[in-house]
């Protein structure tokens, strides 16, 4: 099969088309013929070698990508599933495992990591859901906000932040969010009750809305110590880039690591259902041929992308 991979870490230019053996699904696994794969910041971190320790010394080539959509191609032996070849599915993929990630014509994943696509959703939109929405779901579950409580979200215009806003609203929570001027309308449309300007003083702005502090904050912008002051004493703070604190004031710090939950089938199905019901908005910024993965990574690095860039593997 053809894939987009790298043999050395570096800038976008290290991404190239490579040939790899077709993966064979084992017991409890499903092979998916990939139509589309989303380009996420975690893919850029893999490419740049920021987290190369996660490979455990395994040599390349390395294939990025955690989000794929396509059709079931084969089902491994002794696999209990209602899925059948030809079914349209989404998969969340462990890019740091020996088989590599979603930037490939075929991926093999545990059956628990594969769910049917929502009705009426196309392949580009479908591949933008699972990784970011699952991260937001884990973050919201970790902070355990009381019924009717208040959640603040940083990076609300991004993929994680947008899903965090919508998931919190679906739970009946009051949501504060940050946004650049150009994104205020978008963030309000996603459901935020109050939107404040983004920046290093965002905690002060959130405190102006909640003088005692919010019950929890989901830090999609990785501002870490800059946002702690927005959280009430004993509240919750969920971070997605591994910050260790300290947060102080008995604030509960939760480090969210989505690879630990890629086989949480119940959560993935719930997210699929919420997307199908319109509670989660799937946002595609652009679709590029897979061979232009380096261009997609450059655009991601430039910033300002709203929605996900998507690679089309039917044209590689």
From TrEMBL:
A Pfam cross-reference name: ADH_zinc_N_2
Keyword vocabulary terms for this entry: NADP, Oxidoreductase
CDD domains: MDR_like_2 (cd05289)
Keyword Oxidoreductase set for record: yes
Residues covered by the Enoyl reductase (ER) domain: 10-311
One Gene Ontology term of the molecular function aspect: NADPH binding
UniProt xrefs under PANTHER family: QUINONE OXIDOREDUCTASE PIG3, QUINONE OXIDOREDUCTASE PIG3-RELATED
Protein's UniProt name: Alcohol dehydrogenase
Organism: Amycolatopsis rifamycinica
């Amino acid at each position: 099969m053809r894939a987009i991979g790298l043999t050395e870490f570096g800038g976008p230019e290290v991404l190239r088309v490579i040939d790899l053996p077709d993966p064979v699904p084992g017991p409890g696994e499903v092979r998916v013929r990939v139509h589309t794969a989303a380009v996420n910041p975690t893919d850029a971190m893999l490419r740049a070698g920021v987290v190369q320790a996660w490979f455990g010394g395994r040599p390349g080539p390395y294939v990025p990508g955690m989000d794929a959509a396509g059709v079931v191609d084969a089902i491994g032996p002794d696999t209990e599933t209602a899925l059948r070849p030809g079914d349209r599915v989404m998969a969340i993929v462990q890019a740091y495992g020996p088989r590599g990630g979603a930037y490939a014509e075929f991926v093999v994943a545990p059956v628990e990591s594969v769910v049917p696509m929502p009705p009426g959703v196309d392949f580009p939109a479908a591949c933008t859901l699972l990784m970011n929405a699952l991260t937001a779901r884990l973050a919201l579950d970790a902070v355990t906000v009381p019924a009717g409580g208040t959640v603040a979200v940083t990076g609300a215009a991004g993929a994680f932040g947008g899903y965090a806003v919508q998931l919190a609203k679906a739970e009946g929570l009051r949501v504060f969010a940050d946004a650049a001027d150009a994104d205020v309308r978008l963030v309000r449309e996603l459901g935020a009750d109050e939107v404040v300007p983004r920046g290093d003083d965002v905690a002060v702005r959130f405190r102006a809305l909640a003088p005692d502090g919010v019950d929890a904050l989901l830090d999609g912008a990785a501002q870490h110590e800059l946002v702690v002051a927005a959280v009430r004493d004993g509240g919750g703070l969920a971070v997605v880039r591994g910050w260790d604190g300290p947060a102080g004031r008995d604030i509960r710090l939760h480090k969210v690591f989505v690879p630990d939950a890629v086989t949480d089938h119940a959560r993935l199905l719930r997210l699929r259902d919420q997307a199908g019901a319109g509670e989660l908005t799937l946002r595609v910024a652009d679709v590029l041929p897979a061979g232009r993965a380096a261009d997609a990574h450059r655009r991601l690095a430039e910033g300002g992308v709203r929605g996900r860039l998507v690679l089309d593997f039917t044209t590689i």
